[in-house]
Design goal:
The chain has helices at 54-60, 134-140, 144-148, 196-204, and strands at 4-6, 11-15, 25-31, 46-50, 70-74, 79-80, 85-88, 95-96, 99-105, 122-129, 132-133, 153-160, 174-179, 182-188, 214-216, 231-236, 241-248. It is mainly beta. The protein folds into two domains: 1-35, no CATH class; 37-248, Fumarylacetoacetase-like, C-terminal domain (Fumarylacetoacetate hydrolase, domain 2). Strand 16 (231-236) and strand 17 (241-248) form a beta hairpin. The protein is globular and about 50 Å long. The two termini are 22 Å apart. It binds zinc ion (ZN). The site of zinc ion (ZN) has 7 residues, from loops. Residues 48, 98, 100, 130, 216, 218-219 line the site of zinc ion (ZN).
Length: 259
C-alpha cells in the first residue's frame, strides 16, 4: 500500500512516503487497471459544512441559510475509498447520499489563515459523499451519529493537485450524483453560499487543519435514499467519478479477536 501519482496515460508512479512537500519516486510504475485505489488520503479529521447550497436548504425544509458556516465533523473511521461498500446500519431505511466537492489540506496545514492565504494551504481537490442517516439526523438534534457510521464517508477516486492546469476553477465545477445510473443530484460549486476560501479560513480559526485533513463543502439539492444492492456514483467536473456499492452492515466485532 502506498501513494502514487496517477498520470493522464492511466499509469501510476509509486512515490516514497507521503505526498506532501517534495516527493520522490521509487521508480515503480503500474497500469491503473492493475492497482486498487484506496481513499486517496487518510485524514485526521473530516470537517463538513451543512446547509451550504440554497436549493438543498429548501428541500430539507429546516429553516433559512445559516448566517455563518455550519460546521460538523465526521470521524476518520467513516472514510472509505472508491469501490468500497457503504454499509447501511441495521434497521435503517433512510440513508441518503450527499455528493460534495472535497478540499484536501496541504503540507503547511491551516491555522488562522485569511481567505487570501487559503490557496497556499490547499493540496488539491477530490470528491466526498457525506452519507447521512436522515431519521437519526432529525431525531438526535445533532449529527454525530447520523453522519458518523463506519463507511459513511467515501472519498476519491484521486486528488487533483492542479485543477487550473486543466483549465478548471474550483469555484465553478459541475457536481452530480446518480444512483443505479438515475440522476439524483445536480449543482455547481458556484452556488456555494460560503465559498472554499471563506470556509477554510473560517474553519482554521476554530481548529488547526493538519496536512491531509479533508473539508467537505456541502451538498446540492436532490439528496435521497440508497439501499443495499444499489450503486452510487458521485461526479465532480475534472475530478472523475467516485463509485460505491451499497450493502447491509456487516456484524464483524472486535470482541474475542486478535489483540
Ligand atoms: Zn453534507
Amino acid at each position: 500500500m502506498s501513494f502514487g501519482v496517477l498520470d493522464g496515460d492511466g499509469q501510476v508512479a509509486q512515490i516514497e512516503g507521503h505526498p506532501f512537500g517534495q516527493i520522490s519516486f521509487t521508480g515503480a510504475r503500474y497500469a491503473q487497471a492493475d492497482v486498487r485505489l484506496l481513499s486517496p488520503i487518510l485524514p485526521s479529521k473530516v470537517v463538513c459544512v451543512g446547509k451550504n447550497y440554497a436549493a438543498h436548504i429548501a428541500e430539507m425544509n429546516t429553516g433559512d441559510a445559516p448566517p455563518e458556516p455550519l460546521l460538523f465533523l465526521k470521524p476518520s473511521t467513516s472514510v472509505i475509498g472508491p469501490g468500497d461498500a457503504i454499509r447501511i446500519p441495521p434497521g435503517s431505511t433512510n440513508v441518503h447520499h450527499e455528493v460534495e466537492l472535497a478540499v484536501v489540506i496541504g503540507a503547511r496545514g491551516a491555522r488562522n489563515v485569511t481567505p487570501e492565504q487559503v490557496p497556499a494551504s490547499i493540496f488539491g481537490y477530490t470528491i466526498g459523499n457525506d452519507v447521512t442517516e436522515r431519521d437519526m439526523q432529525k431525531g438526535d438534534g445533532q449529527w454525530t451519529r447520523a453522519k458518523g457510521f463506519d463507511s459513511f464517508c467515501p472519498i476519491g477516486p484521486w486528488i487533483e493537485t492542479d485543477l487550473g492546469g486543466v483549465g478548471l476553477d474550483p469555484a465553478d465545477l459541475a457536481v452530480s450524483c446518480t444512483v443505479d445510473g438515475e440522476p439524483r443530484q445536480q449543482g455547481r460549486t458556484s452556488q456555494l453560499i460560503f465559498d472554499v476560501p471563506t470556509l477554510i479560513s473560517y474553519i482554521s480559526r476554530v481548529m488547526t487543519l493538519l496536512p491531509g485533513d479533508v473539508v467537505l463543502t456541502g451538498t446540492p439539492s436532490g439528496v435521497g435514499p440508497i439501499r443495499p444492492g444499489q450503486r452510487v456514483e458521485c461526479t465532480v467536473e475534472g475530478l472523475g467519478t467516485l463509485a460505491n456499492s451499497v450493502a447491509a452492515a456487516d456484524a464483524v466485532s472486535t470482541a474475542g479477536g486478535a489483540r
